[in-house]
Amino acid sequence: MDTAIRTIVDEVPQGYIFDSHFVINELIKRFSDEYLLFASKFAGSTQPTLAAHGQIGREINKLDGTLIEKIGDAWSETIHKTPGRCTCWKKR
Fold this sequence. Notes:
The protein is α+β, with helices and mostly antiparallel strands. Helix content is 48%, strand content 24%. It has one domain (2-91): Arc Repressor Mutant, subunit A.
C-alpha cells in the first residue's frame, strides 16, 4: 500500500492541493488489488470502509514534512458519491 500511495502522491504536481478522497479513488482505479487486500484487513470492523479509509489517510500523512504538507481539512466526494470530511495536503 505504501508504494501505491507514494506513486499517486509523486504524480501530484508540486504546489497543488489534494485530499485523501483523491488518493483513495486513485487507489481503487489503479491499484485495486492492493486496495482490496488492504481494506480486507478491516472486514471485522463495524464500519470497515471508514476504518480502512481512515488508515489510508494516516498512511498518506506519514509523508507529511517530506513530500507533502498537511494544510487542513476538505469537504469532497467520497467513494459513495456523498460529501464528506477528509484531510488535505499540499505537494512540496
